[in-house]
Design brief:
The complex is a heterodimer of chains A (260) and B (481). Chain A has a single domain, classed as 3-Layer(aba) Sandwich (Rossmann fold), CATH 3.40.50. Chain A is built from 9 helices and 12 strands. Chain A is an alpha/beta fold. Chain B has one domain. The termini of chain B are close together. In chain B, strands 5, 6, 8, 10, 11, 13, 15, 16, 18, 20 and 22 form an 11-stranded mixed β-sheet that branches. Classes of the chains: A alpha/beta (260), B alpha/beta (481). Chains A and B meet through helix 2, strand 7 and helix 3 of A and helix 1, helix 9 and helix 10 of B.
């Protein structure tokens, strides 16, 4: 219990007046890989947005603790500096700002937060080169404007590259598999696996099982209608693949009827 | 959390215009209003030759027959031209020596970050400082004179180089060119004069710093730059004004003559007081800037960063007369709060094989309105002209407006003209993406703007690029969130 990294308690969240999360409970420990699966509209992306502090989402009830600190009320940039990283489903483009410049700004902000001086330029480039090799990213991407004109695969690989550079404690991969062909998917997954250590944790948010063939989860949750309705080991992935989400929906309906 | 961000933004926005102070110096003023008598008085105070007084009076008489232009995408309140002071000069005897300059004036320019002390000045930049109607001090005059370069106030040029002034004054912007040009020609008080003789590469950046200080005063300066054959000069103007509730009028003229194989680079960092957040006060900036590439292969480059003024009406233009001459125009214009800008350029292709390039980047925030208006004209006998125009608009928030008005007048079929335009928005998504990587909203806006305006900033002289970039960020802080 002591070493729980992320603790979500009875989390409710509203977007544009509509309740999307209806009481989420989740605990993540260092070294774990969690998968959150569920049908479209279940609240998967809302959960990642609330965890990372996107302003459009309003938390109406519940708590989120990250390494003993209250995340709610902490601005998005501080959550990032505390070690939470989101690999975006749709990475944005920033014209005129090179990937390497963007990362330098980000890394130095992280360092400032920890009371460290900015990275000396030489060391920074050395570090960047190492991480590039680790996740197999092309040198050319570094000097191009961030995500501008990148293919779907390049964008996702760039997300994992940024993750490698920022070394988060908790990485949230939001639908990282969407829009990727099988080769790109494998490269991205390999990158994530290489970055895995006993001290960090990963939450993989996905609709399909295919990414989980490569990033093997310890714990699988099914999110449905704003709640985690089922939690099990990795064998759940295969079941979902085989039978879809309908049997879970049925299970919940009969449970609800039983209560009524 | 939203609240915290709001507070932060509030704090940053609260700091805004840091040049809004007033200097207490004794000022020699001619009473409000405009008449032939006032013009005669200005001319006699400046001990001008008869021909110059005639030039002024001719302009004034023509101006009386003109009406203010209405075609711009601007809402201009009625201006009472009889309620403006046309001449205000900080009182000081002619000072040869830095130590003799009024300490209040020295302090003012120090505060603005414009050191007039040659020992302290930026390496390689000579400065002419103009406050209200007169030039306060020009640095490095002697060093430049050794190369034959003339860099002095306009008034001094009239006294010491009357033939040159007479030859070029009004040769690019005639006294009857437009309403504001006519007004300026009638009442202009001071400004800078630059003359680079044949074959000379000016050894340092030249810079004029314009400052409006006195209340209820209009500023009407005049800049004349002449580069003879094979000469080169890079010139920069900067401007600020105190924060006042009433609007003040600024109507300047810049004339540039570029001869054969010569190159002039003209950069502007315009930061006149833009008015407060409710749109009260601020400078009305009506400026006519025009250059002529008179000789073969002459080059004229405009680079500008514009963040100030309540209203901006300004179209730096180039007449490409010499065969093979080239002109480029790079501009970033920022409007925030209630600022209005209608600005752009004109490229008039007359000589054969002339080329022009326009890169205009508008940034609008708050309730502001930002229009690009540009004209590319290729006359009938001009063969093989080429133009490339790129006009981008960036919107912050949904209460501002951006417009693009490109005019093409192509009378020769050999011309190649390309125009590209884009409009984009700094999205919440971009900001959040940066936040999620540990970058604060404030820095994110800075980063995005820097990326957007980079093509233009890179064209500014190095010494000013950093300042220009900072200025952009300051003008826009608090406008996203």
């Amino acid at each position: 219990m002591e070493n729980t990294m992320l603790k979500i308690k009875d989390l409710h969240a509203v977007v544009d007046g509509k309740e999307i999360l209806k009481g989420i409970n989740l605990e993540v420990k260092p070294g774990e890989i969690h998968a959150i699966m569920g049908p479209n509209g279940a609240g998967k992306s809302t959960l990642s947005a609330v965890l990372t502090g996107k302003e459009r989402f309003q938390v109406t009830q519940g708590e989120i603790e990250f390494r003993g600190k209250n995340l709610l009320g902490m601005p998005a940039e501080d959550r990032a500096r505390e070690g939470i990283f989101l690999s975006f489903q749709y990475p944005v483009e920033i014209p005129g700002v090179s990937t390497v410049n963007f990362l330098k700004t980000a890394v130095n902000e992280h360092r400032k937060y920890k009371g460290l001086p900015p990275y000396p330029a030489g060391d920074f480039l050395k570090m960047i080169r190492e991480k590039m090799q680790l996740v197999g990213i092309d040198n050319k991407l570094l000097n191009r404007s961030l995500n501008e004109g990148f293919s779907g695969g390049e964008k996702k690989r760039n997300e994992i590259f940024q993750m490698a550079v920022l070394e988060p404690l908790l990485a949230i991969l939001d639908e990282t598999d969407s829009g990727l062909d099988i080769d790109a998917l494998r490269t991205v997954a390999q990158g994530v696996n290489k970055l895995k250590t006993p001290d960090n944790a990963v939450i993989v948010i996905t609709h399909y099982q295919r990414l989980l063939d490569y990033i093997v989860p310890d714990i699988v949750h099914v999110l449905y209608d704003g709640r985690i309705v089922k939690t099990a080991g990795k064998e759940l992935v295969a079941e979902l693949e085989k039978y879809g989400y309908d049997w879970i929906k049925e299970e919940i309906k009969s449970k609800d009827n039983g209560h009524a | 959390m939203t609240k915290e961000k709001d507070n932060l933004l509030q704090e940053v926005t609260g700091s805004d215009y840091k040049y809004g102070f007033v200097t207490n110096v004794e000022t020699d003023v001619i009473g409000k209003g405009l008449s032939e008598d006032v013009i005669r008085l200005i001319s006699s105070k400046k001990e001008e030759p008869e021909w110059l007084l005639e030039f002024r009076l001719k302009a004034y008489r023509h101006w009386l027959t003109m009406k203010m232009p209405q075609w711009a995408q601007l809402t201009i309140p009625e201006i009472n031209y009889q309620d403006i002071i046309y001449y205000a000069a900080p009182k000081q005897e002619e000072k040869k020596n830095w130590d003799e300059v009024d300490p209040e004036l020295k302090a003012t320019f120090d505060k603005l970050g414009i050191p007039l002390n040659e020992q302290k000045t930026l390496a390689g930049v000579a400065v002419d400082a103009v406050m209200d109607s007169i030039s306060v001090k020009t640095t490095f005059k002697e060093a430049l004179a050794e190369r034959g370069v003339i860099f002095c106030s306009f008034s001094e040029a009239v006294k010491n180089h009357p033939d040159l002034v007479k030859k070029y004054l009004g040769s690019v912007v005639p006294y009857n060119d437009n309403f504001f040009a006519a007004l300026n020609s009638a009442v202009f008080s001071d400004g800078s004069f630059v003359y680079i003789p044949k074959g000379v590469r000016c050894p340092m950046e030249l810079s004029t710093y314009f400052r409006i200080n006195a209340a209820k005063t209009g500023q009407f300066e005049r800049t004349l730059i002449v580069a003879e054959d094979d000469a080169y000069v890079s010139y920069l103007e900067g401007c600020t004004a105190p924060q006042r509730d009433e609007n003040q009028l600024h109507a300047a003229i810049v004339e540039i003559v570029v001869e054969k194989n010569a190159e002039v680079k003209y950069s502007t960092v315009q930061n006149w007081y833009p008015g407060d957040k409710q749109g009260k006060g601020g400078i009305y900036n009506f400026v006519t800037k025009r250059g002529i590439c008179r000789g073969e292969n002459a080059r004229l480059i405009w680079a500008q960063v514009e963040t100030g003024s309540a209203i901006t009406w300004k179209y730096p233009s180039t007449i490409l007369k010499g065969d093979g001459s080239v002109s480029e125009f790079y501009s970033v214009a920022v409007t925030n709060n209630h600022q209005q800008a209608d600005t752009g350029t004109k490229m008039i292709h007359i000589g054969n094989n002339t080329r022009s390039r326009i890169v205009s980047k508008g940034i609008s925030a708050g309730h502001s309105s930002n229009s690009y208006r540009g004209k590319v004209k290729v006359v009938k006998n001009c063969q093989n002209a080429r133009n490339y125009s790129q006009c981008d608009s960036l919107l912050l928030g949904d209460k501002c407006g951006a417009h693009t008005f490109p005019y093409l007048e192509i009378e020769n079929p050999t011309a190649q003209v390309e125009h590209e335009a884009t409009t984009s928005k700094i999205g919440e998504d971009q900001i959040f993406y940066c936040n999620q990587r540990g970058i604060s909203t404030e820095d994110a806006v800075g980063l995005i703007i820097k990326g957007y305006a980079g093509d233009v900033i890179n064209k500014m002289p190095m010494e000013f690029a950093v300042e220009a970039q900072k200025l952009l960020q300051i003008s826009l802080e608090g406008s996203v969130g």
